[in-house]
Amino acid sequence: MTDLTRTSDSWLTSAPHQQWLHNQGQTLLDFAKAARVPLGFAGLDRFGKRPDDAPADTVTTARMVHSFALAHIQGLPGCTPLIDHGLRALAGALRDGVHGGWFATPDAQDGNTRKAAYLHAFVALAASSAVVAGRPGATALLDEAVAVLETRFWCEDEGALLESFAGDWSDCEAYRGANSNMHGTETFLALADVLDQDLWLDRALRISERVIHQHAAQSSYLPIEHFDAGWQPLPDYNRDNPTDPFRPFGKTPGHAFEWARLLLHLEAARRQRGLPAPQWLLEDARQLFHSASLHGWNVDGDSGIVYTLDWDNRPVVRERLHWTLAEASAAAAALLQRTGEQEYEVWYQCFWDYIDLHLIDRQHGSWHHELGPDNQPSEKIWPGKADLYHAYQATLLPRLPLAISLASALKLRR
């Protein structure tokens, strides 16, 4: 089949499209700069405003550090002070100075003292990108974050990340989550580059084999999200709380897209380093993308991707979240790069058309983070516009190779 990524027929090689992506990324960055607060970064409302007393949180701070580091590596001005501000917050009030690791908010002001793998994966990702950006303090932060991941969260017997602990590292949660392990996989890809260690690609492969090649393959290639401590699926988990932003009931098409992209990055990274790359990485990526498109896109009478599905692949929560479309477009781009097949070009253009027509907020800035089933702004799951990371990465990934992490790839392009 013709490799469209090497001809003028593909948006991926279109200079105007590449410039459009760059411009869109710049507007997202400019909007997010208002999220700075004394102890890190906080979420913005849909107008790009925040209360003067808006609390910082660790996930937002880490994602901002990561994103602004990516911008700085490209030579975009105004990001250096923001990276350094975030690094100070992650080394300061957001960190547990007694037991190590990170709280969700400064000094656990929200009362939540648990230490979550999801959060720690983002701290390590932020530190790794800041190291590539050459920022002071980044290496020490990365060393500490890696040590916490290795000594607390990584379970060699399971080949995956444990979910969470009490503040003193007791009381390991009897739950295993696909979401935290997915972002762990993303972080491990970055660590393999920054630390120059194959170990992280082996760990990423073990996670992917368990969550996708074993479990998702038995669930129509829509990832099972929730497991008990023995990695047995929990099909009724959060049935009474279906709109949970991190652990919703049922299956999440957006995560199938995200996993599809990560499998292709993992395949390319392993090949580049001369490591075995199982054929199932590509095959499963195709299947994940197909299932997410088939069961998530335009399934309830209007365009868009629904948030969740039940076990018969029927829509449960029909809101459209911006991160889902960001990951869908990035997955289409990755499959297009990998295969050159026309169907992924069609999907890539389709997803960006939707983003442009429905998600980009040309009145107040950034992207609407959530739309209702009628494709009008909604705040049922995600109020405001707290997330730069997903949308900004979506403007970068189509312009970069699959083989190495974002920060490393951007540095090589300079």
UniProtKB/TrEMBL annotation:
Pfam families listed in its UniProt record: GlcNAc_2-epim (PF07221)
Keywords: Isomerase
SUPFAM superfamilies from the UniProt entry: Six-hairpin glycosidases (SSF48208)
Superkingdom of origin: Bacteria
GO aspect biological process, one term: carbohydrate metabolic process
Keyword Isomerase recorded: yes
GO molecular function: isomerase activity
Similarity field: Belongs to the N-acylglucosamine 2-epimerase family.
The name this protein goes by in its record: Sugar isomerase
